[in-house]
Amino acid sequence: MLWPVLDVLEGVMMAQVETVTVLFTDLVDSTALASRVGPERAEELRVEHFRLLREAVVGANGVEVKNTGDGLMVSLPSAVAAVECAQAIQQRHELRNRRAAEQLLVRVGISMGDATRSEGDVFGVPVVEAARLCAKANPGQVLLSNVTRVMVGRRGEHTFRSVGDLELKGLPEPVAACELLWASLESATSPLPPRLQVLPLTDYVGREAIRERLSEVCQLAMDGTRQVVLISGEPGIGKTRLAIQVVSEAHADGANVLFGHCDEELAAAYQPWVQALRGLIEYAPIEVLARHVSEHGGELCRLVPELARRLPNVPAPRVSDQATERCLLFGAVVGLLECAAAQGLVVLLLDDLHWSDKPSLALLKHVVAHLVHARLLVLGAYRESDIDADHPLSSLLADLRREPAVEWVALGGLAQREVESLIAAAAGRQLTAKELKLAEAVCLESDGNPFFVTEILRDLFESGGVERADGGRYVVTADIGELTLPRSVRDVITQRIHRLGPDAVSILDAAAVIGFEFDLELLSVVTGRREDDLLAALESAVAGSLLRESPQTLGRFVFAHALINHTLCEDLSRTRRARLHRRIAQAIEDTAGQNIDERFGELAHHWAAAGQAASSAKAISYARRAGERALAQLAPDEALRWFDQALDQLATVGDDNTAERCDLMILMGEAQRQTGEPIYRDTLLAAGELAARLGDGERMAKAAIANTRGWPSNVVDVDAERVAALQSAIEVLPAESPHRPLLLAQLAAEACAAWDFTTRVRPLIDEAQELARQNCDKYTLARVLTLVSAAQVVRPDLTAERLGLTAELQALADGIDDPHLGCMAAAMRFFATVEIADGDQARQCAHRVWQLSERTGQPWMRWLALFLATATAALGGQIELAEQHASDALAIGMAIGFPDAVFLYSPQFHYLRYEQDRLDEEIIDANIQMRKVAPRLSSIPARLAFYLTEVGRLPEAAELLDEATQAGLGSLNHDDLRLYALAHWGLTAVRVGNRDAAAEIYDLLYPYRTQLIYPVPIAFSSAHAILGHLAGALDRYDDAEHHFAAATALHERIGAPLFEARNLLYWAQMLLTRNAEQDTPRAVELLHLARDTARDLGGAAIVRQTTHLIDATEAVLNRSGL
Length: 1122
Description:
Keywords: ATP-binding, Nucleotide-binding
CATH topology of the domain at 911-1120: Serine Threonine Protein Phosphatase 5, Tetratricopeptide repeat
Pfam family, one: Guanylate_cyc
Number of strands: 20
Structural class: alpha/beta
GO molecular function, one term: adenylate cyclase activity
Number of helices: 49
Protein name: Guanylate cyclase domain-containing protein
Helix content: 55-70%
InterPro entries: A/G_cyclase, AAA_16, Nucleotide_cyclase, P-loop_NTPase, TPR-like_helical_dom_sf
């Protein structure tokens, strides 16, 4: 019994008490991670985790005390070393997590104090404190005792934040602690993208002038002016090689290089941008990403979900209509590039643009247009031979010619001296006379195409015409005259491929049909051969420079050039190629697993090329799913391509009248609407007709609901076919259908201009609102209220109801955070509040629309913002600003194909010209033509008549007024144009002296006396001012005085100085007509006030009219001696 006691005593005597610094780490949620990824992958991650830990420990001169299972216990020589070790641990893991699907998150605890060290272990209070601080820390956090922080002092540039006294398990007293605020690793540049790291063994030769110019362009970009260089040429001419040389040199000088490429046929939506931005997000400093997210939220996660892995709590992208979401996404891409460019030069290389999807080209156009002043160089490479006038790239190139700082580089073949230099570089010495003759022959045969030259040299080496001599140099062994050079690059590629043997050729055939890049695993399934057996053939192809191993992914191979891939495919018979496509499609289905949605495009391509009836069904299904995925990714142009393919495939099997075709047509119409193609209307009408033939009310409803732009389709007339489609869907659907509220509201909006409101439109509005409030979610209710508001926006007799409706709509929109919905709600509220002369609220609504348009960059929102800004500027008497806004809105409307842009611009333009005293015969003729185009609109003849009085054509104006009174002014539609028409007819009646018409118009306008006359495009006058003018003409002077005074109060409240100047003019005219005591001096006073106001605002018409009256009145007064 004595020996155990002696052992304990010996251990105590040997133990050493010393001051130690202890650090604990722990891998967060390691058990859940292992369950999620499986044992093999979990072990790989564990090894990686401990490698990162131990690298940091060694770097800080730490000693690993023990492995705790999910972490380490480490002792360090000082508090500073412990803090630096903890920071390195977090930084290494954070850097690793940027590019990893499975995140390794670590927590760290540090403490120091007196402890006992024995038999390689450490015991004592600081050990317990460090372990408990580690357990208390959040993922990615470092907690340390205040004692440790004090011992760090001012050594090292570290930042700490107090977390207060922490209750730690097993310790009797709270421990004062703080947090280390570590920063993510930053570097001047991210690594060169892997696909750009593979450079030929020889140096770049030739094209000195081009390279010198590109170096100058790079410097211009570095100085802060965005540059674009587009490199074109035939296959193999060296476009990519030149671009890689440029970006490699820029990277060596400190630039961040981003790279994206496009794949033929299999290109996914935004593919080159996804590749490029992943690299940026992987290596960008956390602070840059945090600033980006604070400005743009999580919009970029639609393209690059990795952003949410690098930053915690990234908000989800906003939900809105696709056009708005796409604009938000584009704005986020511009924002991130702008942030990156603020740190240093960014070089973006987009390769093979001739294979790019249309959304990627649209994003490129947006980036170029919006980053004019940024340290950004964009390089694009494309084959000019592969694009025609209808290719989307042709349109982009035309647009870019209008942008500043864009250059084109058209590459031709190398000159003979450059071919000689290329061969000399390969040989490693100067060429002999015999070799110079070879260079001459090769240059002549290849036209200087660098790829062709290289392939010929490889062919000569493989065939024995060129051999490697002692010392590693290449020499020509055959007689130059006896050499037979291939006649085309395809011939030389074919020869080189076949030298590998039939077995390797068969493997490469299958690989080529898979695509430009392929995985060993998929190739193994397709060929039915073991991966190890395939590797020998693939490695021989790599040795022969036909393939390259992917530097990014083990087991992935890339053809050295697209021409090699094409040559292999073209040499296959159609039958064999189709059979391979079928096997590839089946293999992808078997191996894709949960990621199959990312491969819908590949599957659609391979099944379509499989060429069998059974394959067609799958080709159609996958093409549809690829299109739906593209729509979800905000790539409607790409979606159109897939829906078109599915419809073509469906037609080949003779299945034209099916529900599947109807679904595809609806999807096609939605995609066309999102891309701004007017044909979407006809597509969706045809889809609805097919659904009707099928007796499918559900699909009829979907087609009808999709066939809208969110408000009436035509402000001039009614789209009878759309109305009929909505009516048919409502008739077929059961009363409890969830589509019914939207259908009813949409029908009300579409038909309100032609149908009797009380008997036909009102019932639709009431039922739609009732059903939506009972059965719909808030978003659908908001959509219904938007459409109902649009149906009522032309009803000044319903102003009180509209105020309540739009207030409810605005509250819903504020809670949903949908920019498009918020924009529509603010616009509808604007229309209502302007009419009641609530200037403050109207301007707030207009400002809200402006803010949303700025935030999203959505062109339609921008048009609406300018449209409302025109109205508010005109209301405030800012005529020049209103004219500028109106012109800008028209330009945007025309650019996006907005059908009502010109029609809505015309009354704004005409009103401004009226105030500027610039009405002319051209405007008169325009109104005459508009009357013919839109005979339903009562406002046009009224405006025409008034304008005729302004240019002195009173008889014609009187004739138009007589026609209107005979038709019955009281029968004018009860819409916003009714008040506008009555106001113009009233002014005309005064001008031509038609007292009967003036009296009738007064009575019709009087119920709306407190309102502002606002026919949506632009406000015209207060009703009180027009009523005062009419009353004065009718010798009802007391009524006139009342109206003019009320108009003055209204104009002051809403801030409408030009309206008030005209009101004073009318008032003075009434006083001069009445001519009571003191009326004339008072009139002169009002005229001077009106003229001064109008002169300051540029209201030339009022200035002219008041000046005329002042001069005439003062002349009378002078003659009278007054």
